[in-house]
């Protein structure tokens, strides 16, 4: 084959069944046809793996990225390309047992293999030129989810809120939640879950939906905690505790926690995040072929990861613009059990959705299996390309023909049966809806060495061969230092600088996935020098503005305390201007709060830039530091409310003591007025009643006084009559006069008694009025004292109410100056 490659994928040559030989006509497959997806099937030994590897090689040579799911270990062969075709390149990947059985040394077998590969490639018009191009075309990485043999995969991002609007994508996101939850429950041993009947599935799905619909991230720890205390109190028509009692929720949470706490699960929390964009392209923009080696996982773990990976691909896909070309390939080497015709495993719904919808986004699914009996042909009706190799049984062939007949609608079953039956090794029947008719072809020689399935112990060497080393991630350690530690911001003192030749006028590139900010310079040179302790009068030469990178972190905590009728927010900010030796003691780098809008998006013109240190270029490290920062904010986010429990007055820390005292005074005055009114009503009622009695008593005194006066008059009259009778000779009874005197005495006594009773009532009124005034005074004194009673009420934050506002690289401006031939850096920003 000429060095000028044809446009399209060179998969082999046309096979002539009449002559039973391979022609010289190449089979060129249009990559755009793969957007309608492809299915490759054939028994062991049919050449199916070689065809798939050749197709992926062609995709690599054309710069098309791919995500490759490898359940058996065959696809790890994709990194075994040896441009020099030297025996020593092949030797580490040969089976010593094969050499022993053939009676050869390993070096002899390596020499024969190298020669065989050189001759095989030459026969198909291939050679070192294509091998070198393949080696440079894409970045290869072998991932090992749940293991550190290769590059581990951190699955926590699978529970983060997708970066798409909830309202516009509710149906799709709910399907994603359903698949994810089914896979998670299957992983912990709850198999055959029905999403419509399983309480466990319904509960966890609602927890995730509640978080996602509000844009909140959700990790496994928070999911387990919310399983016990969900953020809602009803599910459907029933109260939560009736639908799923607390005790049973605790059992489910314990089951999930046992899985999370298992040492074997910790590897699932390490490594690269489940970031599809990063699996397809390096930070520099080079296409990638990311191989996910799953041979070490059990069935539940495989189903779990495959479902998470497909849902992540689907979420990424929906954030892309539509295209008619092939944007990326998703290859699944053995789909047995993942897309069955009857059962409904977690992987099935998302795979069916992608088969129906991925074409619009330029994502092609390439699915392979050696078991056509177990395929859902209705689901695969969207596959436009079928490559069929030699099949093992008549049952496999009949089932495949049934499926193709269902898909195509019109099929010469007899002709296809004869064609498929006559297939030899590496000969495939190709049915492509974009071509005029079916074709037979023989696959070309693979560029990569097909060593067969490789083991987990060989993965580190494979990644080294692919120039990629797995880097373990150390879990964050809890910090116990109080948030009240005084801030220690970057030094405002001048810094002795390296020569400015070490700085560049070109801004270092911050890797994709890391936010970048520019701190505004709000000091002029004189102010900066004064704050740095330098005399502005000294002779200074200014070289310009130098930007030095640091790590900026700022989070907002929102507090909502309905009990205290309080809504409050608080920000914690840190500026880390030196490389940490381990976990960052954030409190030592506490800084002033910033308004995100005050930061600049571009540097000042004609500026210099210090180099970007490695730790600020490590996306994975910064992601870990961001999580650690959020944990620190959460742990140290407790605020203390000012509280006057007697007055029911509460205030946030932002309220000063003076203002809080005024609030208490206002509340106390309102209370005093209310109690005074109540007191006044009570006393006034008694006073009015007493005054009424006094008035009646006064009337009684007057009546008795009048009666007494009348009796005296009568007594005097009776006495006069007695005297007249004595001197006039008429008889008058002395007893009558005595009676009158006695009645007068009685009337006087009654009058005096009534006067005493009146005085008693008046004294009682005076005492009551005095008691009223005393009670009022006591009331005033008591509430005046209560006003000064102040306590503190702790209010811890909720993790869901911690929001990261700023996290990334911040470029801090410094004046680059020379004083007495000594170059220094002076901060051009204030604290």
Short description:
This protein is 40% helix and 18% strand.
Overview of this structure, please?
- The protein is α/β, with parallel strands linked by helices.
- Among the domains are: about 155-270, no CATH class; about 495-640 and about 805-825, no CATH class; about 660-795.
- The strands form five sheets. It has an eleven-stranded mixed beta sheet with strand order 2-1-15-14-13-3-12-11-4-10-5. Strands 16, 17, 18, 19, 20, 21, 25 and 26 form an eight-stranded mixed beta sheet that branches. The chain has a three-stranded antiparallel beta sheet with strand order 23-22-24, with helices on one face.
- Strand 1 (about 10-15) and strand 2 (about 20-30) form a beta hairpin.
- The radius of gyration is 46 Å and the shape is elongated.
- Residues about 470-495 and about 495-500 have low confidence and may be disordered.
């Amino acid at each position: 084959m000429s060095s000028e490659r044809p446009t399209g994928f060179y998969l082999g040559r046309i096979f002539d069944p009449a002559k039973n030989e391979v022609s010289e006509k190449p089979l060129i497959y249009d990559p755009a046809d793969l957007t309608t997806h492809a299915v490759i099937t054939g028994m062991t030994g049919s050449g199916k793996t070689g065809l798939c590897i050749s197709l992926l090689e062609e995709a690599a040579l054309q710069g098309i990225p791919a995500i490759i799911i490898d359940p058996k270990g065959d696809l790890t062969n994709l990194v075994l390309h040896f441009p020099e075709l030297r025996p020593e390149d092949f030797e580490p990947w040969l089976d010593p047992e094969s050499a022993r059985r053939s009676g050869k040394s390993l070096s002899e077998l390596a020499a024969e293999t190298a020669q065989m590969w050189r001759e095989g490639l030459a026969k198909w018009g291939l050679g070192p030129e294509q091998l070198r191009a393949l080696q440079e075309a894409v970045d290869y990485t072998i991932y090992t989810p749940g293991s550190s043999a290769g590059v581990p995969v951190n699955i926590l991002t699978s529970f983060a809120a997708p970066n798409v609007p909830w309202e516009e994508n509710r149906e799709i996101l709910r399907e994603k939640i359903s698949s994810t939850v089914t896979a998670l429950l299957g992983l912990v041993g709850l198999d055959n879950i029905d999403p419509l009947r399983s309480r466990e599935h319904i509960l966890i799905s609602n927890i995730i939906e509640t978080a996602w619909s509000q844009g909140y991230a959700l990790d496994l720890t928070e999911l387990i905690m919310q399983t016990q205390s969900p953020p809602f109190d009803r599910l459907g028509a029933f109260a939560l505790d009736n639908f799923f009692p607390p005790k049973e929720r605790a059992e489910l949470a314990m089951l999930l926690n046992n899985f999370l706490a298992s040492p074997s699960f910790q590897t699932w929390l390490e490594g690269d995040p489940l970031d599809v964009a990063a699996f397809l392209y390096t930070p520099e923009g080079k296409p990638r072929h990311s191989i996910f080696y799953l041979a070490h996982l059990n069935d539940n773990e495989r189903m779990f990861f495959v479902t998470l990976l497909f849902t992540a691909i689907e979420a990424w896909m929906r954030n892309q613009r539509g295209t008619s070309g092939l944007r990326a390939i998703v290859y699944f080497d053995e789909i047995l059990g993942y897309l069955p015709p009857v059962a409904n495993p977690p992987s099935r719904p998302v795979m069916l959705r992608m088969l129906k919808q991925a074409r619009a986004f330029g994502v092609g699914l390439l699915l392979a299996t050696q078991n056509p009996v177990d395929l859902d042909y209705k689901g695969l009706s969207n596959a436009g390309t079928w490559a069929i190799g030699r099949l093992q049984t008549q049952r496999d062939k009949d089932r495949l023909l049934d499926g193709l007949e269902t898909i195509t609608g019109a099929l010469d079953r007899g002709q296809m049966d004869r064609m498929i039956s006559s297939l030899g090794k590496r000969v495939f029947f190709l049915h492509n809806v974009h071509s005029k008719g079916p074709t037979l072809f023989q696959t070309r020689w693979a560029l990569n060495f097909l060593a067969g399935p490789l083991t987990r112990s060989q993965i580190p060497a494979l990644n080294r061969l692919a120039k990629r080393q797995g880097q373990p991630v150390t879990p964050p350690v809890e910090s116990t230092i109080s948030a009240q530690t005084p801030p220690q911001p970057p030094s405002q003192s001048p810094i002795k600088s390296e020569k400015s030749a070490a700085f560049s006028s070109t801004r270092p590139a911050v890797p994709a996935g890391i936010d970048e900010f520019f701190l505004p310079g709000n000091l002029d040179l004189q102010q900066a020098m004064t704050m740095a302790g330098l005399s502005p009068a000294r002779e200074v030469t200014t070289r310009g503005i130098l930007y030095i990178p640091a790590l900026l972190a700022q989070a907002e905590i929102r507090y909502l305390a309905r009990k205290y009728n309080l809504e409050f927010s608080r920000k914690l900010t840190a500026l880390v201007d030196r490389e940490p030796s381990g976990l960052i003691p954030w409190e030592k780098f506490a800084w002033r709060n910033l308004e995100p809008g005050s930061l600049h998006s571009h540097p000042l013109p004609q500026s210099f830039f210090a180099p970007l240190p490695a730790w600020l270029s490590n996306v994975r490290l910064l992601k870990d530091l961001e999580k650690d920062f959020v944990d620190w904010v959460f742990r140290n986010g407790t605020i203390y409310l000012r509280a006057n429990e007697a007055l029911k007055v509460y205030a946030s820390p932002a309220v000063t003591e003076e203002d809080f005292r005024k609030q208490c005074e206002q509340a106390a005055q309102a209370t005093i007025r209310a109690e005074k009114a109540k007191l006044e009503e009570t006393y006034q009622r008694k006073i009015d009643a007493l005054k009424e009695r006094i008035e009646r008593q006064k009337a009684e005194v007057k009546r008795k006084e009048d009666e007494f006066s009348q009796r005296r008059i009568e007594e005097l009259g009776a006495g006069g009559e007695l005297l007249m009778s004595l001197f006039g000779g008429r008889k008058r009874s002395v007893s009558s006069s005595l009676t009158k005197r006695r009645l007068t005495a009685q009337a006087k006594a009654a009058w005096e008694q009534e006067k005493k009773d009146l005085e008693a009532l008046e004294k009682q009124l005076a005492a009551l009025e005095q008691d009223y005034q005393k009670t009022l005074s006591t009331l005033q004194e008591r509430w005046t004292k209560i006003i000064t009673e102040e306590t503190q009420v702790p209010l811890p934050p909720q993790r869901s109410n911690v929001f990261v506002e700023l996290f990334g690289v911040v470029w801090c401006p410094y004046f680059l100056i020379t004083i007495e031939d000594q170059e220094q850096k002076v901060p051009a920003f204030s604290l």
